[in-house]
Each structure stands twice: as structure tokens, then as C-alpha cells.
Amino acid sequence: MPVAENGQVRLHYETSGLAAGEVLVLSNSLGSNLHMWDKVLPRLESAFRIVRYDTRGHGSSSTPPGPYTINRLGYDLLFLLDHLGIGRANVCGLSLGGMVAMWLAMYAPQRLRRVILANTGARIGTPDMWDQRIAMAQNSGMATLAGVMLERWFTPPFRNQHPADMETIRSMVAATDPDGYIACCEVIRDTDLRSDIGEIAAPALVITGTHDPATPASDGRAIYAAVRNSKYVELDASHLSAWERAEEFADAAIAFLGGEKPVNG
What structural domains and CATH numbers belong to the chain? Predict the structure, then answer.
């Protein structure tokens, strides 16, 4: 299992795709791991060198003691890029991963080519909402939260038609370290990038889901309005659009990043 370790955190990552292609880093959402990208991976691998990693506190990465901050998560990504010898990369983040991608675009723009901000917001939810989510994780556990999150991450028709997928995602969420989940809930609760996102100069693609209750399309449209060099795509999906509408998500990403679509795509 490939890891990058610096004495403060151990980040699990995987690389795939075109060895000599442009790098595309995928940053996962709260409560998931790098496998949340499995549905879009085959298409993206045909055009890019893919780097996926587990955010600290998630998947097979370590869970250092909190508190965490958005700065800390951003520096984790910079550490991983340094570890892999990557000077500049394209970055695609969803939800919490989108916040990390925004941070990189604002505070380390020299490391970024283009950025995809999916199902995210410069300010996500309210402090009270996140305090309630933290209390649920502490009192009820991740298995209970997994059921709640499935309802927020996917539309009812998709959930009903894809029971095997739902079990895969349920297991992913339930296996998340509760301490890591809570620490990252606190990151989202305490992060407000609204006053800074206008500084983003890198070309940006904003992807939203029409039925997303976690990061409504209005959150994405606000980013699109604030970032001067941006494009906007809205998918018929809920929160985990890279899974629910994987084909359309990959199409939008490849077109934006300038990669060639696969011949049989």
C-alpha cells in the first residue's frame, strides 16, 4: 500500500492512468475514501495520470489527533505532491475535497493548473448543523450515519435501482474512523472561504447536482459567479455526482481539462 509519511500524518494514495500524462489529483468527500472515484476512474485514466488519496482521518490514511483545519488539509495535499515529485497538477475535489482544492487555488496557485470544484461550497452548512452531525457520530456511530448519508448523497431513484452500489457506499462510510470524521466535520464547520474565492485565478470548473441537499446548486453557482475564469455544469444528481452520474461527470472533466476522450467513450 503506497503511503507518504512525514511524522505528522500518513497519507494513503494510489496512482494509475497514463504514466506520462498530465496529473489529475482526486480529493475525496467527508466520510468517504479514494474509492468514491471508482465509477469515473476508467474514463479519467484514459486521459491523465491519476493520483487518488485518502484525506487524513479517512480510508487507510492515519488519524492524527485533532483539531484539523482547512490549512492543515491543504498542506497535506502539498506534502503529497512534493512526495511524488509533482510540481503542478490539475485537482478535482468533491465536497470537503472541493474546499481543499479551493484552498490550493487561493494559497498555492503556483502548484495548480486547473481545478474542478464539485458539489462543494465556499461555506457549507451552518455551525449548528455540523455540531448536530458531530453529536450523531459520537452518540450513534458511523453505521447509523451511513444510512443518513446515503439519503443525502443519492436521489431516491438511484438508490432504489442500485442496491449493490448503496451497500458499497454504506460500507465505505461505516468504516470511516469516527475521530477522523468528527475532526473533518469541524474543519467544514469552521471554514468560510467566501471572502477569498474571488482571488482564484486558475481556470475552474464548477459541478453541482440539481438534487443535492448537502451543497445545493446555489452554493456552486455562487462559486461560479465569484471565480472569474470559471465554467459551470449542473448534473441530474444528488451529492455524490461523480458516482451517480459518472459518465456525465467524466465527460465534463475531460472536456474542461483538455484531455482526449477514449475512442470507445
Answer: 3-257 (3.40.50.1820)
